[in-house]
Amino acid sequence: MGTLGIIVAIFFVVFLAMRGYSIVFIAPVASIIVIVTNGMNFFPSLIGNEASYMTGLTGFIINFFAVFLLGAILAQYIEKSGAAQSIAQKVLSITGTEKPFSVLIAIFVISAILTFGGISLFVVLFVIIPLAKPLFKQLNISWNLIVIPVFLGIGTFTMTMLPGTPSIQNVVPTNYLGTTVTAAPLIGIIATIVAIVVGVWYMKNALNKSLAKNEKFEASEDKDNQAVLKEDIPPFFLSILPILVLILIIFVGSALKVPNIVLMGLGAGVVVSAIGFHKYIPSHKQALSLGANGAINPIFFTAASVAFGVVITLAPGFKVISNLILGIPGNPLISLTIASSALGAITGSASGGLGIAMEAFAQSYLAMGVNPEAMHRISAIASAVFTGLPHSGAILSTFALTGLTHEKAFKYSFLSMTLPNLLALIAALIVGVLFY
């Protein structure tokens, strides 16, 4: 009965998420289903001070709020100053805007640079959409294709694979495994190469098929965007300087094993942005306030998923699921991969699924003697493999901002993340099993 209750709760999460309900509402209700069907003490398991839904929620916020806060403030500075626009225009000037594939490559590169610099999905979209739409219209490219370079840039190697990336998916395992954000560089670099090669191949293939079908930019897609291009923007080097400072601090600090190095890097990036972009920013108060407010929703969405996972791991019925996963034959990294990818798919969130996997299995795998660096990198990559499902927050947000629908663009969104992530994961597993 307990195990069945967990399965019912998981389906409940997926069902309501696909219908647009917030995970902040869904997660506690699903937790109640688990608590009731597993015969757990109701209020102690839901809002208790020790091991409960509420301690899972608050624990995640305590551990990671500073990362979300500083990342959101840095994103505001880079967006509001026009620095992101400056970076985008520089990349476009190098790749050119005359050929469809060049435009797609440029969008992919811009997305990757901004994401590796700690910039959020929303800022990347707000930069890219107003730049890309007139180019798509001018070249008469189907607007549906926009999701491929965007998701390839933000949802694959810069999210989980590249050593040093300040993404929350790369930070979460450090709290459970004692690793740094540059963990297992060999695995990360090989996975990155595979993801880029596969992703660019798929992007080229999808574009060729679209052109062969004579798909055009539809007039109905030419709607106004809320984002407006700025005229007075900082030069390229100044625009990218906060990102370079962030990356440099993370790599040097990780090599020296400095604790909380991601926070130091993000903090330094914010300071450099505030000073360097002073003449380009309309209001420091606005950037700081919008950044602070913008950190709230993402961390609560992720924390709610992780808290639901905490309740699951406390439930007696989870023992059956845990034993099944831990009992998968072969190298333990394989069973960890299955657990992380399944939880990422269930929650529709790589960070949420990874948080649950780490909470449930990290200590068990460490006790087996599994290399923590390999666990860090492979579980992070695995958590993102199947997050491009219809109920994914990233998918829903992107469609809302681009005006696309599941019918028109879901296939491209799913494949642009799943293919590169899956093949990169296979490569990562091979390297992890052979060398770690």
Walk me through this protein's architecture.
This protein is mainly α and 436 residues long. It is 75% helix and 0% strand. The protein contains 21 helices and no strands. The chain starts with a helix and ends with a helix.
Salient structural properties:
single chain, mainly alpha, globular
Strand content: under 5%
Give the distance, in angstroms, between the N- and C-terminal Cα atoms: 39 Å
- How many domains make up the 3D coordinates? 1
Give the helix proportion (percent range): over 70%
How many individual β-strands? 0
Poorly predicted residue ranges: none
Question: What structural class do helix, strand and pairing data support?
Answer: mainly alpha
Question: What integer is the average pLDDT?
Answer: 88
- What is the CA-based Rg, rounded? 21 Å
Which shape, going by the Cα principal axes? globular
- SSE string, helices as H and strands as E: HHHHHHHHHHHHHHHHHHHHH
Main β-sheet: number of strands, strand sense, barrel status? none
How many distinct helices?
21
